[in-house]
Amino acid sequence: MAAGALPVLAAFATAVVVGAGTWMPMDASLLLTALPLAAVVLLLGQAFPEELLWRGHVFDSLSPRLSPRAVLVITSVAFGSLHLVSNGSGSTVGDKLLYALMATTLGFAAGAARVRGGGLWMAAGVHWGFHPALRSAPVKPESFGILLVLMAVGLTLAGAALLRGQGGLRPDRRQADLSSRSCV
């Protein structure tokens, strides 16, 4: 979850520092009572179903035919492209494109979590961590585009860190690692 939440929180904080966002007063009691229910709704209604499709079905369908890198790129770009028509994509063409870019990087981070963890739950955790952080940050963006770029950078770094921790996308090394574990 941290790989999804921390880039968002860092993006909001950076937006405030560079003048692209302002701190807003926050009702802590409302946040503490509403956030747990919202987190469950976001997991069951958004993060898990989307990850079941993209990092589950599509990822598994492409994996036997393509390299791990190609699967990660295809699932990330397809996931991001669908966000061009999403409700949260902003009002201008530029905002819509930046929103799709940010969603692509969320797909990359979730895909990297799938590669690292070998299953769906880590990917769902990245996606799930993203949404409560996005909805609970007490910042009003003054520039939606700058905030989207900052989130995209943070999610890309989170995905790269997840891949680096597992030796990257080299199928030969991963396969060798898995084979050596099964022989022990």
UniProtKB/TrEMBL annotation:
Enzyme Commission number(s): 3.4.-.-
Q: Which domain of life is it from?
A: Bacteria
Q: What keywords would UniProt list here?
A: Hydrolase, Membrane, Transmembrane, Transmembrane helix
Q: Which residues form the CAAX prenyl protease 2/Lysostaphin resistance protein A-like domain?
A: 36-130
GO MF annotation list: hydrolase activity
Give TM regions.
29-45, 66-85, 97-113, 144-163
Q: In this record, what's one Pfam family?
A: Rce1-like
> What is this protein identified as?
CPBP family intramembrane glutamic endopeptidase
